């Protein structure tokens, strides 16, 4: 795919993903609890690449999905990603004050409100994903739809919800955060196995969910979902290796967050364990393997290929 | 209902609810993330009345529900209740060290792990409730079940999940916590309206969810669900008024938590706003109204009546 065509496609796809995320944010209308809603929306609108909704949207499209039903899940995954950042930044966790060039949520709204905003976002992510059920009902009310079709749509949404919850929870993201917190508190010297566990769970699990949910909602088969899970694994771990590298070679301005903090904190990262050169080689290898796996899937995947490639060697 | 019969029935029903909650706890098997699972399970097994699962179980039974399908929801509501306590107890929130006679989660496992344990519990609550979908599939695989039936079971579970998420989120419990946190931080003098909002949302919302989910899963109609929501409102607000009273008239030993903390913190409660006498009268009035509403529902509700009455004037 031509570089310019990709960039213009990326721009329009990102805008679409962005508008979906915005559409599903809660409305901080005039209500007593508007502060927590404001803090939640602040955390989400602070920006970012919207990589997760983008990957989900594109996987869904690859499998010829054409309905609105993917949208609540796109918004939900971004809310879950955001809540994890809000809680990670807390003083009792990473104690970060800057993210994407703006104050972190606790710095702006206070610790208690940041805890609540994170809780609110996690809960609202599930509320949002469950709006897919309303879409099924709405369609059933508008058109003649058989019970078989309704049952099968419910099954897809239920499966997608289950993937979302599992990949975000103790067998996914929260599990990775647990070992990360422990390592920091107990000043553990992490083994390669433990660090990989953290990367697989803290970062790759949600990326896997994006690929899998896109496939599930578009009716991909069991084998295809397994392949999507593997692709998500590779893309996610490669992504985190690059993040660890950027903490060493990046600059604060481009990243919008403080760099060198891992080293300063004496934190074990992929780079401290394997060195920059090996990290770069592993990132490349994982990415290439993901592209090979992608080859075996149906549909057009030129854009997805370019998207995955664009993460390799990124500078922010 | 004879007092002794009620007490013996209460004991066996509580044991049943307890065993359901235990059954659905995650297994802290040998895995890297066992610490967070241990902290989650510690928080849940610390005990309590299991009032919420009990109310849900009994409502389900009242409407002639007979399946296992209510169980994942009983466990889920207790996990959500527990996560809210774990986060409420944090130093940046209420800074409590004692709950039900044992150390609070952050006191025992540290702040970072307590934040994660709360997140893990909230997420796992949804994972658990979604196990109801597996039960539908299992039944469908074992018996000849029509598509109509499968679709309608999915619809009930989806509705129950939606109620759970809404009542736990910004329009429910988290919304109430938000105003509570703000009032404390800004030293707001709460109006009666604002305090009632906190009680309605922080406490009553989850109690409403118990009644409503029990009804939804057993196939109660729309009007009946609305009535159950009202009953939950009354029971929940009465319950919180009694909690505020117990902070003044209770003792640490019976309660298993520090008393007088509201007054010490200069916190506005139902008692500081309305006085003990009025609080008691309002608790009674709300309870009586709940019992009248209960009268209009089908099924046997002697045990539910006694259960609601037993909350009135409780000492712990």
The major pleated sheet of chain A works out as:
2 strands, antiparallel
Listing every helix as H and every strand as E from the N terminus to the C terminus, the arrangement of chain A reads HHHHEEHHHHHHHHHHH
Gyration radius from CA atoms of chain A, angstroms: 19 Å
CATH topology of chain A: Farnesyl Diphosphate Synthase
CATH homologous superfamily grouping of chain A: Farnesyl Diphosphate Synthase
Report the total helices of chain A: 15
Give the fraction of residues assigned to helices of chain A: over 70%
CATH architecture of chain A: Orthogonal Bundle
Q: Kindly report how far apart the N and C termini of chain A lie.
A: 23 Å
Under CATH at level 1, the class of chain A stands as Mainly Alpha
**What is the domain tally of chain A?**
1
Gross morphology of chain A is: globular
Strand order of the largest sheet of chain A: 1-2
Proportion of strand residues of chain A: under 5%
Protein chains sharing the most extensive interface: A-B, 62 and 62 residues
Oligomeric state of shown chains: homodimer
> Structural class, judged by helices and strands of chain A?
mainly alpha
Question: What's the count of strands of chain A?
Answer: 2
Which regions of chain A are unreliable across 5 or more consecutive residues at pLDDT < 50?
Answer: none
Average pLDDT of chain A works out at 93
How would you characterize this protein structure?
Two copies of one chain form a homodimer. Chain A is mainly α. Chain A has one domain: Farnesyl Diphosphate Synthase (Orthogonal Bundle), CATH 1.10.600. Helices cover 74% and strands 1% of the residues of chain A. In chain A, strands 1-2 form a two-stranded antiparallel sheet. In chain A, helix 4 packs antiparallel against helix 6 and helix 10 packs across helix 11. Chain A is globular and about 60 Å long. The model of chain A has no long low-confidence stretch (mean pLDDT 93). At the A-B interface, helix 2, helix 6, helix 8, helix 9 and helix 10 of A face helix 2, helix 6, helix 8, helix 9 and helix 10 of B.
